[in-house]
Structure prediction request, 254 residues.
Amino acid sequence: MGSRLILRTTSVESIAHAREWGFDDIEPEIATIMQCDPAALERFRELIRDHAFSCRIFEAPLPKEVQVTERGFNIFSWTEYLKQALERAATFGCTMIAWADGPSRMLPVEGDTSVQKEHFSQFLFMLCDVASRFGMRVCIEPASPRVTNFLTTPAEVAEIIASVGQQNLAMLLSSAYVAQTALNMEELVPYAALLRHVHLEHPRTRRVPLPPTVEDGFDYRTFLKALQVQCSYTGSLALPSRTESRFLAALKGL
Prediction:
């Protein structure tokens, strides 16, 4: 496919070895650079510079424990957080935020959920607005019903992208999602123009991304071919930390 291979990691040891393992770049979490003290942040920056990474993609705009759809979520305080976070990410070269945290948008299982959905749309609009100030795109994924009950199909993600109306909002896709939902890639074709980033993960991945393996039972060859042929996708492929070199070699062979 000619795609850039990216390592999703915040580990200092992984960053130091990612290039020799065969990765073209890294995909850190926003929370990592927000939690760093000045000395740690400078060390992080030095590692990226020393290994010639561009750090174009950051993951998860909010800390993992934050749920946008829960009662009491304060959009104003988190707006201030995002302004600081994305400004800091921009200094690393970030041009894309990948939001793959399905549990952050869980809806109540009973009663009317229209208010929570509206709050999520408002937050997504605000996130895209802040990101646009720094020239960044935001990508959200359809997530498995195993981890959330909101935005679980490409059609639903495409619908909210259209309703939010921000030009820098796009779609992310995970191979684990395809495996868990038995998604026919033909279903993705009408929304292929929205697809801007792909995560390769073990098919049993839920909230914490698990590294794919040669023996995990998912047909990566067919998946990648469908992305290229049916969806005209030539973008980046990001893999979780702890991905073995054996899988990476097999992936390059595809």
Remarks:
- The first strand starts at residue 5 and ends at 8.
- The mean pLDDT is 94.
- The longest helix spans residues 114-133.
- The CA atoms of residues 35 and 41 lie 9 Å apart.
